[in-house]
Amino acid sequence: MDTKKSVHGEWSSRTAFILAATGSAVGLGNIWKFPYITGENGGGAFVIVYLLCVALVGIPVMMAETMFGRRSRENPINTMQILTKEAAADEHWHYLGWMGVIAGMLILSYYSVIAGWACAYVVKSFTGSFFDINATGAKSLFVNFIASPGELMFWHTFFMFATLLIVARGISKGFEQSIRFLIPSLFVMLILLVGYAMSTDSYFKGLHFLFNFDFSKLTGNSVLIALGQAFFSLGIGMGAVMVYGAYLPKNVSILETTAIIAVADTVVALLAGIAIFPIVFSSGLPLDSGPGLIFESLPIAFGNMPGGWLFGTLFFIMLVFAALSSSIALIEPAVSWLVENKNMARNQACFYAGAATWVLGFGSVFSFNIGSDVTLFGKTFYDLLDYLTANLMLPIGGFCIAIFAGWMMLQKHSEQELAMGNPLHYQAWRVLIRYIAPAAIFFVFLHVVGVL
Ligand code: PFF
Fold it and tell me: What is the pLDDT at residue 200?
């Protein structure tokens, strides 16, 4: 398989891959979700568990997923088929590829709705809606906004359209060109916002909340949430990394690039927390206000500080950029499958995969307003999808990837593909992928279903 190339082309360089995969990793998960679930799960202790999940489970699984893609150079469904044959493993393993493609579309369907909120908030900030706003005003701005199916639908459509425009242009003209602009601007905006947070009175209170390790607040369920968040934030367990790996040139080190991406992703999540918590504290809103946390608290701060108009607009633009560089990765597994297996042109594949995901997104749009009473297992459509994908499908996908890489794939193949100069590095990865990562995922699940 050494000389095979993907029909979609390749990343032009190692940096292009690092930027694209960092773009996939850094998203709403870091800037919107990480702060609010950290708030809901008591702060520091949750952060520590999260970091452990990234290091012991996230990185080894991410390496395995990249390696699968680069070995086959095809979409995740074909990849799992090819690798299953090569390893002479049970053919059911190829369903892992299907699960990835489906998880990507399920996630994007609601991801695009939340990213749409961020787009709407760019406009709200820019047009001065936050000016002099108080807690009640910010809450009603948000509540009235999500109560309007028409507005949510408009922004969901807008965001899906922007995603598909990039994906339709392909690897070098679409993904690479947009990422080269999105990621550096995102970092600059984040640093500016951290600078602002440092100037507020609540800066140390925010830091204390993030880094104060009070384990009494930690429950078994919060460990599952931390694990799910590690998967969601790194974007692993579902084929996006696999498909990006398929476009990775042969000579690039998977260990090095994965480590850089995981560190960048974690640093952004922590910086987002450092930027956001002081502002949340100064707004006086409760920390556990859930998905609305940043949409309700940040406008109060932006509306009442000097230059808040500019910082607010920058913040929400940053959120949109982060979301966009992830959403393109979420749909690529489905698009590449349609192109490779159904002989479609990229445009056409984007149209079909995009339309299906867009329609599915209506369920999430309505779960914040006219459909908020429709629940299953006590969860709205949006909550259910979020739980199903982040807390179940991604960790289960990660578990299967670890088992396949550690136990099914021939050792000589993983050794050859990972090509880690130092044999000790390979041994360490092998122990993590065979024992530590699957055992950690398994025990967290046992705990949650109440067996432990
Ligand atoms: N990692 C993204 C985030 O943190 O927002 C979400 C994501 C992207 C999940 C790509 C899965 C994925 F394949």
Answer: 82
| Host H or E run for residue 166 | helix 149-168
User: 12-71 pLDDT, tens per residue?
Assistant: 889 999 999 999 999 999 998 898 888 888 888 899 999 999 999 999 999 999 999 999
What's the gap in Å between 225 CA and the centre of ligand 1? 15
- Domain limits of the chain? 14-448
Task: For residue range 380-397, list pLDDT tens digits in order.
Answer: 999 999 989 988 899 899
Tallying the residues shown for the chain, one arrives at: 452
Q: At CA 303, angle to CA 301 and CA 305, rounded to 5?
A: 65
**Cβ–Cβ < 8 Å for 74, 6:** yes
CA 48 to CA 447: how far, in whole Å? 19
Q: Helix 149-168 and helix 95-126: axis angle, to 10°?
A: 120
* CATH 1.20.1740 is held by the domain 14-448: yes
- Whether 223 lines ligand 1, by a CB cut-off of 6 Å, is no
Q: Which atom of ligand 1 is nearest to 25's Cα?
A: 1
Pocket test for ligand 1, best of 106, 233, 238, 393 (most atoms within 8 A of CB): 233
Cα–Cα distance for residue pair 321/181, rounded to 1 Å: 9
Q: Tens digit of pLDDT for each residue in 149-196? A: 999 999 999 999 999 999 999 888 888 988 888 888 888 888 988 988
User: Separation of 20 CA from ligand 1 center, angstroms?
Assistant: 12
Binding site membership of 235 for ligand 1 (Cβ less than 6 Å): yes
Cα distance between residue 317 and residue 123, in whole Å: 9
